[in-house]
Amino acid sequence: MKRTIFLTICTALTSILSLGQTSTEMFETESHSSSSFTDNGVIFNINSHVTTFDLQANYPGTGWSGTANDNRYIDNSNSAGNGASFSLKTTSNLFKANRFWIYLSNTSLDQTVSGTLTVTGKLSGVTKFTQTKTTGFATSLGTTNGYTLIDLTNLNAQNYSNIIIDELQITLGGAYTYAGLDAFTWVKDSGMVLAANEIKVSKNALSVYPNPIYGPFSIRSDESSRANIYDQAGKLVKSLEVIQGENKADVSDLPNGIYLIKTASETHKIIKR
């Protein structure tokens, strides 16, 4: 009896832990001037929108790990300017942003100037949330080396940490022209991850058409399998038995939006209109 209870508890804990993996990227092993980084097996691209952001490793001790000074972070030190903006974007994964630390100043590294910070989460180019912070920024090195914590569980009294995105955009406003971002904490969820080894483009075992979908659609598969459809929150909304050849399906009952259809070997994004 005790053994059965113990195994049940272990199974439950394993299931819970597999749902989400929290990871913090401190950039200490990343290459200087790189425009991408890898954390917990996921590749993030640093996409510059206004001014150029990349990995900075030339100024040891000027970063912040969340508890102590560190040496590497993302910044735009070579091209600071008005409206500076960049994104952390994945191409084969979805994620949830939790928090990050950011140093904000003008080009002369004066932190006492007035500015704003806008944080935007996007999924497939569609804005899922956006919030502008106007106060509460560090104005001196102090105990955090000049960095301000941006906590998405309570940003302007709103919780954005449970929203699934593939891009987190940071935009400066006012007199802020320089930013250094460090200690990026995010969540990789097994229920929403499109790992590279799950997407077998060359095999082309599964095709969905038309896409966008307006209701009925076709699935052509080279193998028999189960196809699960997930919404943007990672929730399973429909399950289909797919046989080899052409299959008919219908999502008329689903709200318009973006969905993922997954089989054992492939994952495809579909748009319901």
From TrEMBL:
One Pfam match: Por_Secre_tail
Domain annotation Secretion system C-terminal sorting: ranges: 208-272
KW Signal (keyword) present: yes
Domain of life: Bacteria
Signal peptide (residue range): 1-20
Keywords noted in UniProt: Signal
InterPro entries, per the entry: Secre_tail
Signal is among the record's keywords: yes
Protein name: Secretion system C-terminal sorting domain-containing protein
Naturally occurring in which organism (per UniProt): Chryseobacterium defluvii
